[in-house]
Structures are given as C-alpha cells and as structure tokens.
Amino acid sequence: MEAAAITPTRGSLPRGSGPRFADPLLQGVLAAVAAGVLVLIGFFFVKLIVESQPAFSHTGVVDFVTSNDWVPSRGQYGALPLVFGTLLTSGLALVIGVPVAVASALYITELAPRRVRGPLTLLVELLAAVPSVVYGLWGIFFLAPKLLPAEKWFSSTFHFLPFVAGTVSIPNYFVASLILAIMIVPIVSAISREVMSTVPRDHKEAALALGATRWEMIRMAVLPYSRAGISGAAMLGLGRAIGETIAVTIVIGNAAAIGDNVFSQGYTLAAVIANEFGEAASDPVHRASLIAAGLLLFILTLGVNLVARYFVNRAESAGARRTPVGMAG
Amino acid sequence: MSATTLQGISVRRRATDRVARGVTLALTLLALVPLFLVLYYLLKEGLGAFSVHFFTTDPTGRFLGDPGGIRSAIVGTAIIVALATAIAVPLGIGVALYLVEYGRRSFFANTVRYFVDVMTGVPSVMFGLFIYIVLVVAHIGGTFAAWKGSVALALLMLPVVARSSEVVLNLVPNALRESALALGAPRWRVIFRVVLPTALPGLMTGSMLAIARAAGETAPLLFTVAFVNGISTDVGQQMNSLPLQIFNDVGQAQDRLVQRAWGAALTLVLMILFVTLIARLVQRRSGLQP
C-alpha cells in the first residue's frame, strides 16, 4: 500500500513484525470462516432436501402438505394439521404479542421518565432469559389450569364466533399461542426500540414545536418513520413463534389432527419433530417425514426472516444515514 | 386562530394524549406480568425442592422411592455449554473480524452479514435436526454424544457472537488502528495487539450473552445428546443436562418428578441470570459503550 511508497530505504527498517505471509494468511483464514457461514446454510438446505426424499416419494410433495392425516402407525404422513397448528398458534401469538411489544417500546423510548427507562428495558429483556422449557413447565402446571375456567366461559359465551364453540381441553392452541406471545415480546420490543431510536430528533422536535402533544408527536413523527422497521420486528417475532419447539410441545397437547376450536389440542411442525423423532429412528419413512416437516419449517422461517431482515436493515441504515445530518443541523 | 394569542391544547387532544400514555404504560406493565408470575412460581415451587441431597445425587430413574437429585444434569450442562463456547466464540469473533477489518462493505461481506442475521432466526430445533442428520444418523463417532450437542449449541451461538462482536469491533476508534499502522505495524499485529484488546470487554459480554441463551436450549440437545440419568464427564458419551432433565420430568405425571423439574428449572434460571449479570457488569466496566 502507500507505506511502501514512502519507505525508500526498505532494508534499514527493523522487520520485527513477523513473517511476510502472516497478513494474507490471517485474511484468508478469516474470509474462509466467514464463507463457512454461507456454505453451512447451503449445506444444511441441501441435506434437508436429500434426507426428506423418502417422505416425498412415499407421500408425494403436494399430498404431504395438503392431506389431513398424520398417522405414523399406518404410514400416513399428511402434514396439514401440523402446518395449520403452526400457522394458527404463531398468528395468534403475533396478534397478542405485537401490540404489547410495540406499546412497551413506545413507552420506553418516548414516554417513560428517563430514570425508569433502563430498568424497564432490563425487565423486558429478562423475559428472553427464561428458557423455553421453563415457560413450558410454567405453562402446563400454572397457566393452562388457571385459564381453563376463563376459556370455558369464553367458549360458551361467544359460541357464535367461528372456531370458538366446543370442548375445551387444558393443553390447547390458545395456551400455546399465549406462551408464544410472551416469548416473542422481548425480541419484537428490542428491535422496535432500535428502530424507534433512529427516528431523527429534528422530526420529533419539529412536531413538538408545532404544538403537538407527545402522542401526536408519536403518531406524526415516530410511527410513520419506523413503520417498516416495526413490521420487520413483528416478522422476526413471527419467525421465532413458528420455530419455537419445547414450550409448545409441552402445552399444545400433541394431537395430530386439526382441532375443532381454538381451545382444542393440536400439534405444530416443530413439536412433531421433537416428539416423534425417538420412535421414528427405526422407520426410515417416518424419519424422512419428520425431516420433511423440518424442511417445511426451515423454508417458512427462512422466508420470514429474509423478508424481515430486509425491512429491519433498511429501516436501521436509513436511520444511520440520517442521524449525523440531524445532529449537524 | 388569532395572530396574537396562542390557543391552548384542546380538552379532547389533551385527553387523547393522556389515554394513549396510560394505555402504553398499562401494556408495558402487562408485558412484565408473566415475568413476575414465572419467577414467583419458580421460587415458590423450586425452593421447596432444594436440599443438599438435591444437588449431590444423580437422578435414579426409579419409578418408586427416591427420585434422586440433579447433580449429573448440572455437570452435564456445564460441560456441554463450555465445549460449545470453545467452538462458537473463536469462530464468531473470526467472522466479525473479517466483516469489520477486511470485508467492510464489499458484496461478499454484506451477504455474509445478511445470512448471519438470518441464521439468528433459524429455530434451535433445526440445528438439532441438522446435527442429528449429519452426525447422529451418519454414525460419526457413535450415535448420541455430548460433543454433538455442543456442536448444535455452537451453531446456535455462532451468529449471536458474530453479530455482537461486529458491533463492538466497530466501536474501536479508527484513530487507534491508523496510529498503529502508521508506526509500521502490519495488519495482523494491529488486530491482535490493538483492536482485540481494546474490544475485549465487549467481546466477552457478547459471548456471555450467547452462553446464557444456549444454556437454556432443550431442542438442540434432544436429538444429539439424548437423556441419561447417570453422571458422565466423557463428551463422547451420552450426558444428562438441565433442560433435558426438566423436559423429561415434565412428561412424567408424578408430583415428585414435577417437583424436581421446578427445582432444576430454578437452578437453570439462576445460572442463566448469573451469567447475564456478569455480562452486564463487564459491559458497564468497558470503555466502549454502544
């Protein structure tokens, strides 16, 4: 580089800096490690496709996703009840969790007194420190039994709503959704906070200077600016909810059929893998079907994450580009 | 509006503002309700299980009589997570070093960065399944083994370590790098003698947060380590661990085993909180704050 141009007497400089190849070597090794991440994800994908082949040749790709009978003992592998359970629980979790998470992010970044911001942030983050299996334990022995009367009341009072009337079991879709909602709050809240903190000060001060109340400032400056990022945060939460395994396995009841209401037992893609892989070890088709369920899960979460990251990265880099301008002005 | 007097904020707007503030506060507190409920029940049920016997004996696996404690689970979790850390931290910091010191904004570096982000969203059960396929089913070094669980956890930790390390390495002032380069130091020396020591506390914080996340994971271990009762320190063998112990006990409809699950859960959460706390303390002491 330039250093070479300004050292006319090369030999006279002490060369105690180690061998000449050290630099390219380090760069090569580090680049290889970085490339390893890409190779790994690619290898992972290929391996899943190859290993799930027996399932697809046994059941057929379309039938695997669309038929409604998962009965391993009879060699029937239709993953529709699993896909349904996954989408229902993660969708419900999103509906419950995202408003709470976004509200907490708004409160912490814009409304809370400065003294309590740190402690509140820490407490919300602690929700993520509780392991999945502990949420499951708490969910099945405390939450599910306590919720049962309320669920029964809701089911009989609002029986005219679709997918509500019917038998209420203790482990069910709704309890799983609620646990998932609790589990996605910290990540959705954290990313929303990051995105909201990139809103230029100018925009907020301009709104306040024009006489807006705090809430009007949030609606006019903060929310429009961070909308894309918050959508991304919600989608990252969705990805988490789709893939969450152990807590769901414990509280959903593991019944491989589409339940007749939201308070029925069900199953999800992730739960079936965790639950049945032991018995599947001796049956190649069953094992391949579980791996195929994994492939579906991988495609779902990867797709959701690819889109979510695009939104979040764009929101954050837009903030990073503008912040210096705002500070200079 | 008149030109000379400013109108006050109308009653309706003021009320809206107050309601909105109240609602966001209420929802924030609502988000924290489960945290307190979980912690309360953990303490209430878990402390009852604690005794010297609980920490010094292994699960017996017997259906009747003394169910035993969780010694083998604590030892197993410590070994599996330590090995996972030894794999994931150097690789994760390596990826971050490449991104910050060499790749910067190149297309390749941006692609890696993007996929590292995406990898943080891959469900933990998938890493377990992956290792199950490539190491367990393929019979590489036997079937279930502790080291395979460590590899699965390491895959989970890698993107977390890489991302947090990248943030910290970016905080190292460029003036430090430039002055070292100007003194004639080659790049690798700048990295090892200037960049890494400066960033060390931040790198440690990121790694410890990754440890805290991996220690509680059940799904990756389920397919790779498998559950056993007895104590073992051989990473080539099956090993017990706290998450698997809890998961196993939850599935048993016996009060004594559920009691042990609460005790094990409290132990696990305390271990995770301890690591998280240390991580935060290290972060507070470091000069580089995001």
Question: Can you give keywords for this protein?
Answer:
heterodimer; A: 329 residues; mainly alpha; two-stranded antiparallel sheet; globular; disordered N terminus; disordered C terminus; B: 290 residues; 11 helices; 0% strand
Could you explain how this protein is built, in words?
- The complex is a heterodimer of chains A (329) and B (290).
- With 329 residues, chain A is mainly alpha-helical.
- A two-stranded antiparallel sheet of chain A has the order 1-2.
- In chain A, helix 2 packs across helix 12 and helix 4 runs antiparallel to helix 9.
- Chain A starts with a helix and ends with a helix.
- The N terminus and C terminus of chain A are likely disordered.
- Chain B is 73% helix and 0% strand.
- Chain B is globular, with a radius of gyration of 25 Å.
- Chain B is an all-alpha fold.
- Chains A and B meet through helix 2, helix 4, helix 5, helix 6 and helix 7 of A and helix 1, helix 3, helix 4, helix 5 and helix 6 of B.
Quick overview of this protein structure:
The complex is a heterodimer of chains A (329) and B (290). By secondary structure, chain A is mostly helical. Chain A contains 12 helices and 2 strands.
